[in-house]
Each structure stands twice: as structure tokens, then as C-alpha cells.
Amino acid sequence: MNSLSDLNNSRLHPHIPKHFFTVIVICFGLLVLSVIASLVLGSRPVSFNELIAGLFHQNADSYGASVVRKRISRTVFSLFCGAALGISGALMQAVTRNPIADPSILGVNTGASLFVVSGIAFLNINTAYQYIWFALAGAMITAVFVFGIGSMGRGGATPLKLVLAGAATSAALSSLVIAIMIPRSYVMDQFRFWQVGSVGAANWSSISTFIPFLIIGILLGIISTTALNALALGDEVAKGLGVRTGILRLVAALAAVLLCGATTALAGPIGFIGLLSTHLIRLILGPDLRYIIPMSAFAGAIILTISDVCGRLIGSPGELEVGVVTAFIGAPILIILARKAKVSSL
Known about the structure:
By secondary structure, the chain is mainly α. It has one domain (76-310, 319-341): ABC transporter involved in vitamin B12 uptake, BtuC (Orthogonal Bundle), CATH 1.10.3470. Helices cover 76% and strands 0% of the residues. The longest helix is centred in the N-terminal third of the chain and has 34 residues, at 63-96. It starts with a helix and ends in a 5-residue tail after the last helix.
């Protein structure tokens, strides 16, 4: 009884994790290193002098400085996308109480992809702003559908049922995406590079389009953290503490869908970032979402940026899209997590 009481108190009145400030310093250091690596490394390595010239607009005509300036927007975009996916994964895991929930696993990314390719094929959309709204619509509808299917039957929305519903939905929607693209070669040309997930086409226009959705999603996620801590104790306990569980799930899910939908619209369906970053932070700092959610943003930004750098180095003189790199890393980790957790709820 005492241990249960201690667990409840740790959820409702959490203390600062033991290694929290150490983790912040390490994450900040890794973030700086990943940014430098993203600016310097690639098919064309950049020297220190060229890096300084590119950052401070010196020797504007030099090739090295122009490479750095191009990589600045790409680096900023990868940081933002990684942070958005990290928070989205943390929120999805908290809302569904599913330790392996992730936008790619629950089919949300695929739903966004279907709506984007449908917009390209039937409505001739071709701007980042249009992509975002179509992707958000697809992500929201898919999230509601998967949760509805996973909630049917005895026991409600269990982790296993949600994963199975997400996998089945993702497979069905992927087939529809292929069916739309095959007879339309122009759609396939426009869609094929976007589909694997890449931050290589980033520019300041797409970043400025992305920022409002990022800010709204982060604010909604942060506002929900305390109530989500109570939700982790179970719906009945949360209701007893005055938490409106239905509204809470709606707000937190909306934040998660905004973040992953906007990211998918501009960078493609990059998978496993939310899963990797959230599990890493939870392993170090414990279950308190007040720390997991913001630190998952740091971890997601670092993981995605480093993955992008690895893709450039592996594929040199071309590049390997970051979605391929994250899938290569994330798939084995997902299998390990599923075996250890036995798909149990949080």
C-alpha cells in the first residue's frame, strides 16, 4: 500500500529528477555539436574559415560560404522537425498509454501522406502551405479512425489493439497512395522524394510556414503535462482529481497531430524519432511528463540532425534521405522495446 501511495505522490507531486541539470548540459552540448556537424559535414566538407565566412556573410562569392548558407536553413529545419516529432511521440504515448506509440507506428504519417498525394493528383497543390493543411486533415482523420478501431471490443483502447489498428490502417492507406500514384507519373515524380522523408529541400519559406504550427503544438503540449501525469495513474484516479479526461485527450492529441502533421507535410513521413527520443529521456529522467515532453524536443532535434548528417556521409557524393536512416536505426529498437515491454501500457 505504501509503495502505491509513493508512486501516486511521485506522479502528482514530482520532484526534479536527480540528473536533470546534467542531462540539460549534455543535451545542449550535443545540440551544438550536431549543429556544427550539420553545417560542416556533407558531400562537400567545409573548413573552419568557410564556416565563419558563411555564418557572418563574408566572402559571399566563395563556394564554401554559399554551401554553409544553404546548410543553415536545412539545419534549422531539421532541428524544428526533430523537436516537433519528439514532442508528438511523447504526447501520443501519454494519451494512448502505449509505450511504443509513434506517429509512424499508429498510421498518422501515412494518413497525412494519402491526403497530400491526393491533393497533388486531384487538386494540383504545390506549395508548402497547401501541403500542411492537407497533411493535417489526413493526420487528424487517421488518428480518430485508428483510436476508434482500437477502442472497439472488450477492454477499450489497449496498447496492442492500437498498434494493430495503426499497422492495418497504415498498410491500407499505403496501398491507396500507390494506387493514386501509379497511373500518374507526374505525381510520382513529385511525391517519391518526399515520401521517404527528407529535410534536404528546406528553405526559409517552408520554415516560416512551419513555425506557427510548431509553436501552437508545443504550447498545447506543455499546458497538458500536469494533467497527463494524473492520467498516467488511470482514468478513474484522474477524474477523481478533477481532470476532464476527454478534453485532455482531445487537446493533447490535437497538439500531437499538429506537430507530426505539419512535419510530415514539409519533410515527408519521417519515422521513429518520437519513439527513440521519448524512450531515451524516460529511461534517464523517469516518468514525469513535465520533463519528458520538453527534453524529448531536445533529443528529437539532436537525433534527427545527426541522422541527416549520417545520411549525407553514407550517401556521399549524393545523400541518403534521413527517413531511411531513422528507419534503419528505429526498427530494431522498436522490436527490442516491444519484446521487453510485451506491449504493456504505461
